[in-house]
Amino acid sequence: MRRSLDLGKPVTLDRIDTIADSLGAPMARQYSFELCRAHLDDVVLVDDDAMAAGAALMQSEAKLAVEPAASATAAAMFGPLRQRLQGKNICLVVCGANIDTLNYAKLIERGQRHLPSLVG
Predict the structure, then answer these.
(1) What ranges do the domains of the chain cover?
(2) The pTM is what?
(3) What is the DSSP letter of 14?
């Protein structure tokens, strides 16, 4: 969606490479694109390491076991949105726990390695 908004029209991606598979839609549809264009102020990007760190943070601080897509909100809050959100009351929408135990353990291990760079 970010690329579609940047280009002003829905686009199809050649490849998707992210641990957040539910956020990696291969294309933007016209209806979704129009809704986003009309109602979003901004779309921020976070990388896989930040999402892993967000999952580790959510596990350690809130005891929430989340998949990478659900941790994207925490990654954005502590990453590209940190300055804009400082001093404000905010709410994170966290949904999705579609991850198995083995992959969750790997995600948290990766996230713990990258947590210092997220919360700085």
Answers:
(1) 2-39, 48-119
(2) 0.86
(3) S
